[in-house]
Amino acid sequence: MPAQRGGPSTPPSHRSGWTDRCDRLARSRPFEIAIVVVILANGIVLGLETYDDLSPAGTALHALELFFRAVFVVEIAVRLAAYGRRPQDFFRHGWNVFDFVVIAAIFIPGLHGDPALLRVVRVARMVRLVRFSPGLRTIVSALWRSLPGVTGFLALAVVTLYVYGMAGWLIFGNRYPEEYGDIGRSLLTLFVLLSLETLPDLIQQGMAISPWTLLYYVSYVVITVNLLLNILIAVIVNSMEEARRLEMTERLAPGYDEDGDGVPDEVDRIALTQRLDDLRAVITELERELRIDRDDGHGRPHRDNARIRR
């Protein structure tokens, strides 16, 4: 889910006075603060409902829940109205879709008959706080963009664990069946070993069989804990940097959309960066020409005049 706020970019021909007012309201800081306060209050009410001692206040808490629903519905209506005659553009942004689904889900018929599922939907509203925080949006965007790299990492990690699991079953299976009795137990033991908490005990068990088993655990720790986890961290950090660049692009040029897909992405960032570089080159050239003109104005002969005199 790309992490952008998804402000309206409706063409002027599709806008009206009412649309502009809704747009200004949806983008205003007081409106955002009010929604954040309501989301936090919604979370507090959810927490209070878990206390049996507050059961007498159930009517008041239910009234607050109805109030929260009304506020969220009005919020979505205002943000939809900000798109004027192109409300479909509202759903081009991932966070807008998430907000709409979370708020609309509460009105699904039959949902109120399942208190647990209803509470899950209400808890999901808390995730909407991410949309109002640039830092959280960047983190979520980075995690989302790191999924392709993480998928490759998981495939490599599974293969590595499986190879070491089979080797562990062959080496320790007969002696320690509880840890390595079959491939499932071997994989579980090695997965827990990723925390390094059980490493001393496992090394001690291995040394009872042969000192050469130390190579098994040392190589496993080096490859999985050090190498693979560092690769995972590198993938996430790289995605974080990319998400920050896209967030900066959105801040520098809100609504800029080079490829016309309605969503700020890497294509838009590269295009905007290229335009900024071209603009810097033009400014540098203008500054150079201005310096030449100033030099000419202080009595220095112009280059063309100097050539004529020669």
Radius of gyration: 30 Å
CATH class of the domain at 17-132: Mainly Alpha
Helix-and-strand structural type: mainly alpha
Based on the coordinates given, report the CATH architecture of the domain at 17-132: Up-down Bundle
Mean of residue pLDDT values: 78
What's the count of strands?
0
Q: Ends: how far apart?
A: 68 Å
Strand content is under 5%
User: In this structure, how is the largest beta sheet organized?
Assistant: none
Morphology call: flat
Low-confidence regions: 1-5, 256-263, 301-310
CATH homology superfamily name of the domain at 17-132: Voltage-gated potassium channels. Chain C
What's the tally of helices?
Answer: 13
CATH topology of the domain at 17-132: Four Helix Bundle (Hemerythrin (Met), subunit A)
Order of helices and strands: HHHHHHHHHHHHH
Helix content: over 70%
InterPro entries: Ion_trans_dom (IPR005821), VGCC_Ca_Na (IPR043203), Volt_channel_dom_sf (IPR027359)
GO molecular function, one term: voltage-gated sodium channel activity
Protein name: Voltage-gated sodium channel
Subcellular location: Membrane
